[in-house]
Each structure stands twice: as C-alpha cells, then as structure tokens.
Known about the structure:
Layout: E1 2-4, E2 9-14, H1 20-33, E3 38-43, H2 47-51, H3 60-69, E4 71-74, H4 88-95, E5 100-106, E6 120-126, E7 136-138, E8 144-146, H5 152-168, E9 173-178, H6 186-198, E10 205-210, H7 211-220, E11 227-230, H8 232-246, E12 253-257, E13 262-266, H9 283-295, H10 299-314, E14 317-318, E15 330-331, H11 334-343, E16 375-385, H12 391-401, E17 405-412, E18 415-418, E19 430-437, H13 445-457, E20 462-471, E21 474-475
Parallel strand pairs: 2-3, 2-4, 4-13, 6-11, 9-10, 9-11, 14-15
Antiparallel strand pairs: 1-3, 5-6, 5-12, 7-8, 12-13, 16-19, 16-20, 17-18, 17-19, 20-21
Helix pairs in contact: 1-9, 1-11, 5-6, 7-8, 9-10, 10-11
Amino acid sequence: MSTSLNGSTPITVARGDGIGPEIMEATLRIMEAAGASLDIEEISIGEAMYEQGFTAGLSPEALESIRRTKVFLKAPITTPQGGGFKSLNVTIRKTFGMYANIRPCISYSPFVATKHPVMDVVIVRENEEDLYAGIEHRQTDEVVQCLKLISRPGCERIVRYAFEYARVHERRKVTAFSKDNIMKLTDGMFHAVFDEIALEYPDIESEHWIVDIGAAKLADTPEAFDVIVMQNLYGDILSDVAAQIAGSVGLAGSANIGNEVSMFEAIHGSAPRRAGQNVANPSGLILGAVQMLVHIGQNDVATAVHNAWLRTIEDGVHTYDTYDEAVSTAKVSTSGFADAVIERIGQRPATLPAVDYRVEEKITIKLTERIPATKEQVGVDVFVDERNASVDDLASKLMGLAGEFRLDMITNRGQKVWPGGAAETLCTDHWRCRFLTRNDKPTTATAVANLQWRLAESAISPIKTEGLFLFDGEPGFSKGQGQ
Length: 483
C-alpha cells in the first residue's frame, strides 16, 4: 500500500501489532500536521506474517520496500512464543547492516517523575555482533554454548560513530563500557580500539568503565555520563535501564543506523493487553520519528514536532502511564495526545530545554586500513564429551595420543582441572583439552587433523576444535582458567 502526505522523501512504514497501529496513526498525523514531506509505502509485519509462515515476521516484498526507500519507521510487533521464530529486529538490522543503535535517554523533570532530573544520556549500541550473532550449539548432554564474536572493524565502526555523534551534537564526553578484565580478547579488543580512536578526537573527553560498576554508576548518577558506547548485549540491557530511570521506557525512541538503510522505532514492545483501547503513550514512536526526520534532512519539521511534544509534556497533558495529579493537567488518550501535540506545533517549551536541529546528521564512517598480522598456529584446543573417565584417566589417555604435541592443560567450564585441579570444582561432561607444539614451534593444519584422527580412533570424539595462533608473535588465545 502506498500513501502520500506531501510527496518527497520515500519511507517504509509498518503499523505493527498490539498498540502499534494506534501509536503509528498518532505519529503520522503529527508529522503530517508539522509539514513532513514523505512518500509512504506501507508493509505488513509481525503476527500476520508469522502466521503466513514467514519465520522472521516479514515477507521478501517487505524487505524490498525497505531496501528501496532506505528508511523504515516501524511500530512494535508481537513475536509468537515457542521455537522457530526469528527476531524481526535482528533480521532487519543484520540484513541491511544497521550497525549503530542510538537511544537518547532524557529526563523531563518535574513533568515526568524521575529521581534524576538532569539526566541527558545517549547510548550508542553496537547492533550486529557480540552474542547476538546467534551462533549456539548443544555440545554434550549437559553443556550448550553461545559464541561471542567481536571484530575489529565492528569495534572501530561503532566507536567512531559515537565520537562523530558527539561532535555533531556538541556533546562533551564519550564513555566506553566493557568487561575486559575478564574477557581480555573480545572486550579487550573493544577497549583497545576505543583508546586508539579517542586520540583522534582531542576535543572530546573520553573514559572507560568496567561495565558492572559503570552500570551501577549509570543507575545512581547518570548525570556523570554524556554519550556511552557499548557492545551489543550491554547496550541492549543498559539502554532500557537508562530509559526507565530517565522517566519511562515508554518515552524513548530509537534509531538503527546503517550506511545504506536505517530504521526508527520506539524501544518498547507491542503491549497487546492495551491494544485497541486508545490509551497507549505514542511518545516513544514520535521521538523515533523525530530521529528519522533529522536523518532524512527535514530538520525544521523535526524541530517543530519535538518542541511541540516538549510543550505538551510541559503543559501537563499526559497519557495514563505518566499521569500524576501533582503535575498533570489532563489525562488523555493516544489520539488525544496526538491532538494536543498538533495544537502546539509552532510553540516551544517554556521550562524544558527547546531543541533546534540545524545540522543534518549524516555520519559516514571510513574504516582504517590495516596490514594483516603474521599468523602462526602453535596448538589446538580440542573439546571432548566424556562422562565416565576421571580427569586423570582422560589426561593419561590424551598424553599417549599427543604425538608431536604436548598436553598442556584440561579445563571444565573454563576452570583448569588438570594438572593441579581442585576436588571441589564442579565438572560436567564437557572438557577443553589444550595441546601445544613441543618447543612452541609452528604446526600445520595437517598435524592438527592427524591429532583429531588419533583421538577418534581411540573413541575420543572431538566436539569441536579451536586453533591456537600467534599474531605477530602475540598469543591470540586466553592463557588458562577463568577468573
């Protein structure tokens, strides 16, 4: 279906499920009243498409619409319970390379209740990598794994975006959160890339926090932060935390930015229990649409919509979720809230800071060209499924099959149990057996395959193997037991 407001920029719109159609209607009416120039292509996503057998919740035709317009304004959807259904958001983000998720988390005190009245934090979340690669395996009867994949280009792209965002929006500081005291290679790479790139932006303050204490600081003193850049999982969790402590997850909009295609949405779900009641707060989608208008260069419209929304909040016109007799003047419906915002187009807030989107936000990231490191294999971690043998018996058998390798250690769930393990350590049926070359000399893929053959011939079947490599002489693998 194609509709036209005033003709101009093509966008794809999906009304979604649950409260989605109601809040999308409110958002579209506000943009039209503010003079947005849009050519709208509507697509169907979510429940109806899952029921038709589309496991990701949208059809090939819908994907083509998004590819054609390059701008997607999406209402929340409902994903069916049970297996076999993919996340629509993850599918779209990965399909179109939407690597940066931008979530402003701002307090609107005293008009929306919050313990943090001066909070103004933007979370920049990496959107494609990390545990969200979705690579999982059940390896033994007792153990499953999920691979955390972090790439240097992925780190560089999101960190550069965070600094460029800060520069464009005249923000003072960029903070990175990671857990590199434990995950020294994956999170260590993210931290190292952050430190390297920060040197290129001397006008912007930079700092790094370990994610656990950083999260505690964010929840307690969010005004200490400005722009926070994080890997996928941390960013997913803490952006919701930040939105909630700012006032409400229902007020937060979100942009998913790619080099070619971008998606804009509210961060909340479809709230099916509230569907069809005309009570849902459309603010998250409205503010997501504001981000979209800035992205497509309709800055005057974005400014008008955002300031009218701020004035509406300031005037105490609130939906049920933020209504408070102490500050609210009217409890309105979804459509009534849209009417109130439309009535205030052209007005600016009197107390809350007004916005003025003067600069078109078109951030283009160019990755640094690097010379690949010299790579040499010096061993292999072989993971085996063994339930019956003791670790000492397993080690004895493996040493007899090591050949040109030496058995260096055996771990269970990351904890070293041989040599010198502790009797108190809980062991499962999943063992990592590390073989290193004798005298630390490089080995070959053929030698590793021969080792696996010897193990298999002796009824020790490898579940998986991980090569142990040196990169320019530095180990590309963790040394031993977890912390």
